[in-house]
Design a protein that fits this description.
By secondary structure, this protein is α+β, with helices and mostly antiparallel strands. The chain has a single domain, classed as Umud Fragment, subunit A, CATH 2.10.109. The chain is 31% helix and 33% strand. The chain has two helices and eight strands. Strands 1, 2, 3, 4, 5, 6, 7 and 8 form an eight-stranded antiparallel beta sheet that branches. The chain is globular, with a radius of gyration of 17 Å. The N and C termini lie far apart (54 Å).
């Protein structure tokens, strides 16, 4: 990321932390097909996060918009487990201090989806559950195949 992009990101983060709703252009395909590269996301600072919500947080490589698939407590602290819909792995644990806000509107071409509506929240929750189930089944299959491949010869 060049210096101009870093400064833009810092200003954007400060605006969200100050309570302003912001619009963000999604980059990449980790949330495809629901959020495509170039989709415009309206992000609202919000500390009340539910399973299925798409949050924006500052990760190692910049800003990340991924779906919350689980909540977890570690050492008495609350963390969120997020995942890109199009990825086969979960992200690192996200603490509440890393969360900048949650996506409340997604716009792509003529399509505009209100994420904090009842249908939007229901859809988000369904996708989070499906994502979790797929990942856990995939891991189970990988573990079984590993046991078969590395089975000791008699």
């Amino acid at each position: 990321m060049n210096r101009k992009e870093e400064v833009k990101e810092e200003i954007w983060c400060e605006a969200l932390k100050s309570g302003h709703t912001m619009r963000y252009k999604a980059l990449g395909g980790s949330m495809a097909p629901f959020i495509k590269d170039g989709s415009v996301l309206t992000v609202k600072p919000n500390k009340r996060i539910f399973i299925g919500d798409i949050i924006l947080y500052k990760g190692g490589g910049g800003l990340i918009a991924h779906r919350v698939i689980r909540k977890r407590k570690v050492g008495g602290r609350a963390f969120l487990i997020t995942k890109g819909d199009n990825l086969g792995y979960r992200d690192a644990l996200v603490s509440s201090s890393e969360i900048l806000g949650k996506v409340v509107v997604m716009e792509s071409g003529e399509r505009r989806i209100q994420m904090d509506s009842i249908p939007g929240r229901t859809f988000n929750c369904f996708i989070a559950i499906a994502s979790s189930l797929f990942l856990s089944r995939l891991l189970t299959l990988l573990r079984r195949s590993r046991k078969l491949v590395f089975k000791k010869a008699d």
